[in-house]
């Protein structure tokens, strides 16, 4: 099917038309909508926001029985609570230095990074609506000339932290309109709530028109479904609302509908026996066959975070409340499932090693009938005595023990991980520094698959050979997630060390998309240069470390009502 498009003259009135060479109707949007939705951007703010923003600390908590009133987007009603949360965010014993006292010298590459980020801006009818994935003229564009939803998140956070929210607002509005279009792959109609993986602005100089061309997976290599896009969209909407205090965007009926559509899609009932979300391979940042099908940690953590953000953003009206009830129930089941079955530490590893199999009925200990022989050799060496992590995947007779960075960081930020688990993840990163950080942060997953396993699991993917790209490559973009998670867990010095490693090479190497090799010493064999999220990820990490009050826009406090009731192991003691 032809991609869904938003079309219209660059200036003047906007008319609907049929896309050339296709019978697909175009997405109509009229000027009044545009001028209403896209406000003029403010001049660039180069002054770093220095003040402690109380809002950033006045955390919003979800209520397990949503109130039946119009108490929209509940901010803390008690300003002192903000400072209680401050204690929770920074561990006073561990934090050294004063974040805003000149302790952090501005690094010379920061200015270059901002310039590069601004060069990546994509405009639609004179308004910035996103950033291009990579500005690299030396290699084939493929889809790197598009605005990817997931790639835009660090760009958006950088702009929010720099006091430039307009581009984020434009992006959120543009994508919610793209969501509401009918999308098909061949003759199959996709769910209403599906958000695009990416979009592109096409300029027609002859007709003086601009068109938005969106991809929902129907053009993507392997026709992969962007399950993460909708979750990132909700998380970003909450970040925008939290950082600007502007609730009017989230309150718009179109935006409320957008949230509900995403929720309806992922909360629909089916044959599932687990509260986790069943996905095909390539459904997230790892958008190729990599054996992440099933219940990948990246999606489960984003799902959890999006559910929590949605519960904060939904209006308490009839439709909102109906959705909220389902969210609350799912959150409960999901946090129990993840904290119990995805968590691995030395005690749990030992328990699995000794598992009995073929147990039937409710009394089964080995509920998923995992065969101990399926434990890979590497995991015994990798698991430190102190520390733990959420494993890659859990389903019948399948535990994927690989470490995935994004899912574990999001688990910390969303408070899917308990404080003890967050601490254990940090301990693991510290004790497995060589493996996970090496010479360039940060391994997207660990370890790589090689030879026979690589052949079987990736389908002989030449881009995903061992220790390259998604298969054990090192991705600089992940630094922002690590930094946010470290600050939240009270361990900012870990992030500082990683950032110093990255900034010694990133500019010199031309902001590569990823690095190869066990230690990440080599620029990735097919890595794009000027990869926007490598640039933005670095800036966000720097800004957060310098002013940790920024963390509030991307982090959720622990919900006391979701505290786990059981005691599992040494690194997870209550
Ligand atoms: C690659 C990455 C994907 C990213 C895209 C654009 O396909 O795997 O996560 O969104 O490039 O940068």
UniProtKB/TrEMBL annotation:
One matching Pfam family: Glyco_hydro_100
Key word Hydrolase present: yes
GO biological process terms on file: sucrose catabolic process
GO molecular function: endo-alpha-N-acetylgalactosaminidase activity; sucrose alpha-glucosidase activity
The EC number(s) this enzyme carries: 3.2.1.26
Broad enzyme group: hydrolase
Region (Disordered): 1-58
Catalysed reactions, as listed in the record: Hydrolysis of terminal non-reducing beta-D-fructofuranoside residues in beta-D-fructofuranosides
Swiss-Prot/TrEMBL keywords: Carbohydrate metabolism, Glycosidase, Hydrolase
Coiled coil: none
Top-level taxon: Eukaryota
Start-end of Basic and acidic residues biased regions: 33-57
Keyword Glycoprotein recorded: no
Membrane-spanning parts: none
Function: Invertase that cleaves sucrose into glucose and fructose.
Family in the record: Belongs to the glycosyl hydrolase 100 family.
Protein name (Swiss-Prot/TrEMBL): Alkaline/neutral invertase
